[in-house]
Amino acid sequence: MQVTIxxxxxxxxxxxxxxxxxxxxxTSVEVxxxxxRLVVLDGGTGIRPLGLSLxxxxxxxxxxxxxxxLDHVEGLGFFAPLFDSDCAITIWGPAQDGPSLSERVAAxxxxxxFPLPFEQFGERIEFHECGEETWQLDGLNVTAAxxxxxxxxxxxxxxxDGRVFTFIPDNEPGxxxxxxxxxxxxxxxxxHDAQYTxxxxxxxxxxxxxxxxxxxxAVREAAPGRAVMVHHDxxxxxxxxxxxxxxxxxxxxxxxxxxxxxxxxxx
Length: 267
Hints:
Elements: E1 2-7, E2 28-32, E3 38-41, H1 47-52, E4 60-64, E5 88-94, H2 101-108, E6 125-130, E7 134-137, E8 140-146, E9 154-160, E10 163-168, H3 181-184, E11 189-193, H4 198-201, H5 212-222, E12 226-230, H6 238-252, E13 257-258, E14 264-266
Parallel strand pairs: 3-4, 4-5, 5-6, 10-11, 11-12, 12-13
Antiparallel strand pairs: 1-2, 1-14, 2-3, 7-8, 8-9, 9-10
Helix pairs in contact: 5-6
């Protein structure tokens, strides 16, 4: 399994006037199975360059959404395979209160928020609402569990041949220290929300994100092989993120890493 980051910043705010080392696009991650099948986690603006990078368009893509907040779906209308009549796309995501997952995504990809009606995509786009469960996907075992974030939000544990990648881009263990731990326990690679400094979190409790202190605690408890900080705050420049990473490593008692666009991990 190969995992590549295409977006890991918190929102679309301008990250700075110079080159950016750690992001700019919102959340989207590419997962390649051993057979080469493409699985995409979240549809933030990072999904646009992901789609443009595909030299050969796959016949099938699975897109797994953690939740429907705008920074995790705003890139969907710019994902080139969406407009390829030979590409079938299955969208997986949490069951919703009220309108269904398909109705909510269709509403976003329709006027007045999108220039064309969702019906243009036809039956190529399928939806599967998932609960807190495990399912099989081309040799992957995908486990979904709810994490602490406003609205119905899932983290995912993805396993292939005994190797585990855990994806928890939005989570607030400050309100529930156990949130996400079962998904993260013993993972080979863990991507986890680490948006705030301790001082910032003091005024942002309940917003659904982790301080680096809470991230470090989760890393100590879960003991992943590699721990990667994601969902960077858009007000943080690269130097701030590097200081936060150094502090998180000290708090965790081990090395942690900063998520950076274009970086791949062999899991």
